[in-house]
Structures are given as C-alpha cells and as structure tokens.
Known about the structure:
3 helices
Amino acid sequence: MVEAGLSGYNLVAWIGLSAPAGTPPDVVNKLSGALNKNLAQPRVTSFLLQLGMEYVPNSPKEFGIFVNEQLRVWTDKVRDAGIQPE
C-alpha cells in the first residue's frame, strides 16, 4: 500500500475459526486447543510458510479482540473514504 502512495494501512490477510454465539466455553476451548495443537506441527507450519502464510497461535479471547479491532479499523476506513453500501 505504501508503494502505491497510501499510508496508514496495516493490511494483512487472516483466517480464523469461529463458532456460533452461545457455544459453551468448554467446547470453544477444546476446539481451539485441538486446532492450535495441529497447526503447530512442524509439517503444517512448513506447508503454510510455502503458501506464504504464518501460523500465529492465540486464544479464543485474543482472536475475538483481534476480530473486533479489524472491524473497527476497517469500519473507520470505509466511513472516512465515504464508501456507501449499495
């Protein structure tokens, strides 16, 4: 973005796993633990790196904070740019 003359962007692509609202915390934590355990395997992290991806482990709470921050940042940018939904 900087090379294109646009500053103030920290543009990252990310992938995450979400569960429906109201999913019991023990189920969320079990799924999160299993996912993090599998994604941390060297053959998986190596494969992801080959795809240009990096595994960044986090907890359900940390992921929720990240998602909410992304929503806030991009909502502000869309509003500041005057983009209207069609």
